[in-house]
Fold each of these.
Amino acid sequence: MLCHVAGVVPITTADIDDLVCTAVFFAGCNFRCPFCFSSDILDFKQDFSKDIRIVKQQIERNFPFVDAVLFCGGEPTLQKPVLINLAAFAKEKGMKVAIETNGSKPNVLRELLDKHLVDYIILDLKSPLNTDNMTKTLRPLSTFFFTIDDILASIKETMALLKKRRDDVGLIIRTTVVPMLTYRKEHFLEMAYDIKDLDAVWELRPFVNASSVVSPRFKETNPPSSEFLRGLKKVCLAEYPDMRIRIKRYDTDCNFCRD
Ligand code: SF4
């Protein structure tokens, strides 16, 4: 089976319940978020095409040292047969499986849950769930032929699925705090309202102005400070004191193993 995988990071903590993970970065994404710093892996380039057996070998050599395999990207749910195959491989070997997703493919997540192939889902919630904020935050690729309202409906379906299957899976909601896009306290109060019943850890991360960021304007934009993020956390906790909110930073130093 052929797959598009940009690389494998042998060992990372990934901030999931203290698990040590191998991270598999799927190439290709159906969005072009302007603040995304993974612009070099968002296309299904020929360079990333390989036999799935090579990826399995890269994963397997880390099994003595890790507890879990994290599938991220890019958007892993766009390659459903590959994701299911690799998740089944990891589970057969006794590993936990974690999947980071933008939430646009609820049917893929449903199938993974039905087949008991996923232990943790990290849902990247980019903005409040309304057309206006989503339009500013996401850029759906025209080749995928869906509108912002289609995406919104899919993400809401994903959240409804996760609420229904909450006992079956560990859940982290991840939101990148991005100046000019998703940074006002009103944005975070609206998202807090949307996720308050999911009993998830909500992780706030400052955006990274890396040279690989999608939109040039964000290369020149300063990331928000830790103090700013703590202020957002405080505002949300004042309204929803039971929420589990944590502040993290992206690790941009991870290097892929590409062999
Ligand atoms: S931030 Fe995530 S969903 Fe957005 S373009 Fe990057 S990989 Fe895709």
Amino acid sequence: MHLDLSADQIQIRDAVRALCQGEFAAHAAEWDQKDDIPRWAVDKLAEMGLLGMSIPEAWGGLGYDLRTTTMVIEEIARVSGALAILFAVHNSVGAYPIYEFGTDEQRKRWLPKLTTTDMGVFSLSEPGSGSDAAALSATAVRAGDDYVLNGSKNWVTNGVHAATFLVFARTGGPGPKGVSAFVLERGMKGLSIGKCEDKMGLRGSHTVTLMMDDLRVPASHLLGKENEGMKVALGSLEKGRIGVAAQALGVMRAAFEAAVKYSQERQAFGAPIAKIQAIQFKLAEMERRVQAAKLLIQRAAWLKDRGKPCGREASMAKLYTTEAATWVTHQAIQVHGGYGYVKEYAVERYYRDVRVMEIYEGTSEIQRLVIARSMLRDGVTV
Ligand SMILES: Cc1cc2nc3c(=O)[nH]c(=O)nc-3n(C[C@H](O)[C@H](O)[C@H](O)COP(=O)(O)OP(=O)(O)OC[C@H]3O[C@@H](n4cnc5c(N)ncnc54)[C@H](O)[C@@H]3O)c2cc1C
């Protein structure tokens, strides 16, 4: 249930649902097993214009607001968490910051391909800095009309296939005020892609390391102002966190739906297990958490779409939904009994896929810090 949707929102949601159920659902387990999402799946998204989902029409996108984008992420995650992170990272933190913080010249250079064929990347984390992102140590030193970048990045989602990399490096002193954002392109001399992580879940979404070795980029690749890169990073992360919540919601919905179906089919003690009150209580709790998560996500996205502050709401949506998704997928396996523990049933994959959502784009601990700081500074929400 989504509140108050326009005919246009219903149309795009239903079209994406049909694409996901018709084209992707049958392949999601195979992508997980092979640890690879084939290019044709991205091409299907591109054919519908979804690579430019939130970029304004004037710049070649579909111009949808965040609330609609979260519904699309949810539908994709309902069949494949791995495809959902690929899509969400590209849209929310790969392509959109180039529109939001870029000059018209930069938009003209990168958006035509990012809205049609190319994948985008957001590369803030490093081997030595994750939660403490402003402690990053990659450097960008001004040299005439260029910058020379050195250092390594890790956990780069979409890094294997991306053509455009939004990367953060240090141009000034220590801390958040010495960081700048740069747009790098595949094939640049000095840019190399390292190992692909062998992950517990979201298999098929590639997560790689990235090395910059005397990588020379023209100053025209600086996104935003020098030393103001953390504004780009933090501004993008609000959207990103709401997007992660939508990923978690999609997977937990799939787990909930699977649990309901299985409970009505599986017989024990002469009746479907759905007749057992202990199972009913689990299903009721799942539904409660799914619906509560949906409302928190819609509220955060609604605020963001109206340009209102939403840092606290984005964190609450992400924190609640990802923890709820861990609980729901755990219980969905319990409802399936032993069958929930084997790959023949998708709940096994859902359980592995949601675990990382409590970690990336800010861990649950960091979300709690953001919520508490905002509450103590600006007052409680009434
Ligand atoms: C599959 C995957 C994909 C990812 N994709 C991307 C990507 O595309 N781009 C990108 O830039 N990054 C990406 N990341 C990185 C991700 O954002 C970081 O892993 C995350 O921010 C946590 O950082 P860390 O792993 O260094 O953990 P750490 O920061 O070392 O944290 C370790 C533990 O300490 C806790 N902790 C740290 N500081 C505090 C504190 N002040 N208060 C309380 N607890 C604290 C954390 O919550 C955590 O439990 C990805 C990670 C994964 C696993």
Amino acid sequence: MVGERVLPMTIVCDSPAATLAFGARLGALLVCGDIVALQGELGTGKTQLAAGIAAGLGASEAVTSPTFVVIQHYHGRLPIHHADLYRLDDPAELAGIGLEELLDGDGVCLIEWPERAGERLPAEHLSIVCAWLGPAERAFTLGGTGPRARQIVAALAAVGC
Ligand SMILES: Nc1ncnc2c1ncn2[C@@H]1O[C@H](COP(=O)(O)OP(=O)(O)OP(=O)(O)O)[C@@H](O)[C@H]1O
Ligand SMILES: [Mg+2]
């Protein structure tokens, strides 16, 4: 059974550093099995936010765009799998890149361009829609489906994001 959709909540970050800090607060809340789907057009801050999330999970490696290698792995208090599906032509290709095993595996998955996975993306995940507001301003709208998405959004709301 799939859980209910979460009421969306938007946070505006007015600099790349603010996005990193927000991502770090989010990363500190994540547990094994969490999936974060990062939607939004090119340059809206998905990778920047992923870098903050990885830092909040305790990863010390530099997080870069995984566009050409599709999935990169970082090591924090949990394994972090960071995928960019921009170049995926067909959701069936997911099997070939090994993301499906990682989705219910040992760590946290951060997925850019999750819509490319179609129905293969588990229905229960935290979704973040990233949008460009200005040269240094981005809006991040959190939502998604299921108990974990609800807990994460509630926890962020409780600390004022
Ligand atoms: N408030 C902000 N938050 C995040 N990034 C910002 C912000 N202001 C400016 N930027 C800049 O916007 C760019 C965001 O790039 P990023 O690679 O994170 O985007 P992306 O959504 O991952 O793009 P792509 O779809 O190509 O993977 C960076 O150059 C970053 O410095
Ligand atoms: Mg990116």
